[in-house]
Amino acid sequence: MAFLVLLLLLNFVFNATNVQSTSSIIKPGSSLSPINNSYLLSPSGQFAFGFYRYKNGYSVGIWFENVQQKTIVWTANRDASPFPSDVTLVLTTEGTLIVRPKQGQDVLIANTSSHNVSRLATSASMLDSGNFVLLNSSGGILWKSFDFPTDTILPGQRVAVDGKLVSSVAESDHGSGKFLIVMQGDGNLVQYPVGAVELGAAYWASNTINAGYGVSLNLDGNGHLYLLNDTGFNIKSINTNYVNASGKSMYRATIDTDGIFRLYSHSSNRSDDWYTEWSSSNYRCDPIGLCGENSYCVMMDGEPICRCPPHFDFINETQKELGCRKNYSLVACDTRNDQTFDFLEVNDVSWKDDAYLSLSSKTKNICRAECYRDCSCEAAVFENESCKMMKLPLRFGRRVLSGQITAFLKIGGELAGVGTRKRKRKLRMDMLIISIAMACLTLGFLVVATIGVRKYRAHARKYKRVLRLVNNRVAEDVALKSFSFEELKDATNNFVDVIGKGAYGTVFKGVLFDGERTVAIKRLEKVVAEGERDFLNEMKAIGKTHHKNLVRLLGYCYDGTNRLLVYEYMKNGSLADFLFKSRLKVNWEGRVEIVLSIARGICYLHEECETQIIHCDIKPENILMDDKGYAKIADFGLAKLLMPNQSRTYTEIRGTRGYVAPEWHRNLPITVKADVYSFGIMLFEIICCRRSVKADVPENEQVLAYWVHDCFKANEVEKLVQNELVEKSKLEKMVKVGLWCTQEEASSRPSMKRVILMLEGTVNIPDPPLLTSFVSSSLSPINNSYLLSPSGQFAFGFYRYKNGYSVGIWFENVQQKTIVWTANRDASSFPSDVTLVLTTEGTLIVRPKQGQDVLIANTSSHNVSRLATSASMLDSGNFVLLNSSGGIVWKSFDFPTDTILPGQRLAVDGKLVSSVAESDHGSGKFLIVMQGDGNLVQYPVGAVELGAAYWASNTINAGYGVSLNLDGNGHLYLLNDIGFNIKSINMNYVNASGKSMYHATIDTDVLTDLMIGTLNGHPLIIDAILSACAVRIVIVL
Fold first, then answer.
1. CB-count burial class (<10 Å; 0-12, 13-18, 19+) for 50
2. Does domain 772-890 bear CATH number 2.90.10.10?
3. Burial class (CB in 10 A: 0-12, 13-18, 19+), 15
4. How far, in whole angstroms, is CA 323 from its chain's centroid?
5. Domain map of the chain by residue range?
6. What is the DSSP string of 846-871?
7. What angle do CA 38, 958, 267 make, to 5 degrees?
8. Residue 640, marked binder
9. Which residue in 500, 626, 907, 949 is a FRET match for 981, CA 20 to 30 A apart?
């Protein structure tokens, strides 16, 4: 009997342990631990969440449990150190999921702590989708791992705008690796090396730029990888030949450690391996950045390996991917010595185009000679009759078997001597012959020696002057010269010859080096204390700049309180003189060349300097013309320098009114995109040969940027050049570049490198977004101002309501104005003298002439990335507030009234409330609710708690996170949180020809309408449920 009891007890203990190990829910007070190997299993046993072995300890993650080789699909805190075995994973009563060590600080995994009890996690669950979630007491999802992917997405998961996947370091190291794939705000899915996004160094892209707003990457349960826009349309299938093969039940898409994005499938057979269904590249050297600086990738036995060019050594022989360094040193650049340099030739290796200068070159030898003559050139790449001059290090090298790329690496010192041994032998023979000849002539020279001595004394002073001039000019090639104030005072004859004056100083003409060189000397005024502290560092950095489109800074003066800059003298004046004062207008071809020259100079400052420089005052007065008519950028006195680890800076407003970017006035971070904006304004001036603001023209032409926009929108760009004969396509190209450069949001502006590519015609220029946003401006009922979406389909602003006005969104291009959203719907209507304003604090308000402001939307925050700086009406019908990076921080789609539109969803606990009447948009008697149990239900207002429903979708417990969705084809359906359609509401929907607009509305008479309209649509009602006393779904055609 005792033995039987013992067996029962052991069986109980075994079962209890097993339950603990395979539970699917964590409650407060329970825990998981590496010691007892406890974890959460999803209901089907397909996925597990918990601790897994990692390096010399454990990490917290999610993996496929029912495959032979454990496959990690998500890791918490992936870049943190592994945990020891004595930790526990706990869901606290405060709603936080933590790893608790025996000693030391807790480590946060997920946090839902909140004063709102409905936002507090009370349990955690591992779902069959592979999504680990924290739930509130009603079963609603508060946090999910799907929102924080690492290197993998699963079916039902999506990567939204600005979302990314980052590769792991190695198969055994799940920390953040070298490569990422980003869902960009422009609709393009792009792969980059980590840290190279700003450089535009992509190696794969979906090529879906401007394909729609809110584009996301999606993977469905059939292994289909595709892009959806915010209206639910599939804009591109990534794996176009996907097939849901029989027996294959599991999929994942992963950016692997080698930088290639792959879609994998696994059959239901546990012993099978993962099969690659699709990959972003079949050539494993395609991902740039596999090999470090000065090294290149080649394929060897099917595997990518890194190699060094000749006379370069690996930085670390055991980690060859770290790159190479040269094993020689270049001697000082002296073009008078033919034996100073030699070249190593490397064929069929492609490098990133980091050229500071690109030249047309017919042959390899010409390209090599050009690099030889240029002291700044350390390498040259010849391809397709183009010679690209570069500095070391070279980046992103990879073998390409085209036979058309040759790189020349300049070497010097002893190595150059090895390369020129034959020349040296020939030189020794020549010297022997010369020596014999010299011996014969020695006697003759003795005869004239006396005469030479006399002449020497006469010319000694002249030789000293020449020597001083040469020394000074050699010094110019090495560093800036420091002048005393007295020297520059003498050079300018006591500062009498003024040749220019600006906000920060006066420019004088001067002469240096005993009258041998004319210079321009700028005397800085009102130098602030901070500027004085940084002055020498700025001079040191500026002195290293060297580009044919920059005015050369020769020296400076830092003497007491005096600060002066010495520039090369440009006798032809400024671009402003050419554009606005000259009687002879520069022809179109000349103006295009000027634009390109300026763009190349700014690009050098932004991307090619050792220290990045933001000019901060790009304008025609700061573009000088040399004696050959080339444009050069001048005046670095206003430039704010960035250290290498910075990409943006906060600083006081610098620059000239009319050219400064909007972010200056919003106290936002200033990046190189501020210069891009100024360049765009100046580009308009160069196109039109007029100032950006001009009073003596018609009102619609006074602000040049607005006039250019209007002309482009009306397809009348030829008005901008008056009677000048310019090919329209070329003119439009310049205008489009300018419109892109002057976008309100800095993140929407192109880099200067891309601007150059646009101007040269290397890349296509998409149509820029037209003015659909406002900032630091207002809308008013008096002047009937409102925002239109780009296509003109939707409008946002004031509309007539009762005896006044309300703020809302409506269909603009239908005969009968149809309101789809109202702000503050239960508030009183506004009088006509109010204005709608987006404040600098990030709030959207209605401001009356007297009384309190009325809040419409609020994004004010101590976090600048959450602060709205502009607002826009999208073509989806979504009115949004955007931050300085163009990210959406508030949207009307999150606050529906009685209507949803295609691409909008009604999430858990979301509801639509009917209006009081057709003419009264206040909250009415009926509502439809997306319940946490998965059921979509209609109630009278106030009767939810009573359970007095009059219609339901009958989908209780059909899944977690169920939402109501309407797509662009008029399909109204319910999705669960893994993206599966659990029920079609309108089962017999048809996307009729020519029908392009839909909205679903709970009407004032308890009816839920699905409305479809053409551009001129008149409604036709079709009953889906015939009993008007219950509910009907109405289709309006």
1. buried
2. yes
3. exposed
4. 27
5. 296-421, 481-568, 575-771, 772-890, 896-1037
6. EE-SSS--EEEEE---SSGGGS--EE
7. 60
8. no
9. 949
Q: What is the DSSP letter of 104?
A: S
Beta carbons within 10 angstroms of residue 497's beta carbon: 13
Which contacts of 32-41 are long-range, i.e. CB under 8 A and separated by 24 or more positions?
32/88, 32/89, 33/87, 33/88, 33/89, 34/58, 34/83, 34/85, 34/87, 35/85, 35/86, 40/124, 40/125, 40/126, 40/132, 41/65, 41/126
Q: Do domains 296-421 and 481-568 have the same CATH topology?
A: no
The one catalytic residue among 256, 286, 374, 617: 617
- Cβ(795)–Cβ(774) under 8 Å? no
Class of domain 896-1037: mainly beta
Among this protein's residues, is 617 annotated catalytic?
yes
- The DSSP output letter for 117 is G
- Distance (Å) of CA 866 to CA 419, 843, 885: 60, 11, 10
Q: Which fold has domain 575-771?
A: Transferase(Phosphotransferase); domain 1 (1.10.510)
For the chain, 1037 residues long, the average pLDDT of each consecutive 10-residue run is 41 36 68 86 90 92 88 94 92 90 91 73 90 88 94 94 93 92 90 76 86 86 86 81 58 94 81 82 87 90 87 90 84 53 84 84 87 86 89 88 82 50 45 57 55 50 41 43 89 90 81 80 68 64 81 85 87 87 80 94 84 83 85 70 38 55 64 91 94 79 83 89 87 94 82 91 81 56 75 86 92 85 93 87 88 88 70 86 76 95 90 92 93 91 79 84 85 81 74 64 69 36 34 31
SS percent in the chain: helix, strand, coil, step 5:
20, 30, 45
233 token code pair: 């349309």
HSE-CB of 265 using CA atoms within 13 angstroms: 20
Domain spanning 296-421 has what CATH number? 3.50.4.10
Distance CA 333, CA 373 (A): 9
The residue with tokens 């239960």 is 826
- Please name the amino acid found at residue 1004: T
Give the separation between CA 40 and CA 62, rounded to whole angstroms: 9
Q: How far apart are CA 49 and CA 484, in angstroms?
A: 71
Q: Which CATH superfamily is domain 481-568 in?
A: Phosphorylase Kinase; domain 1 (3.30.200.20)
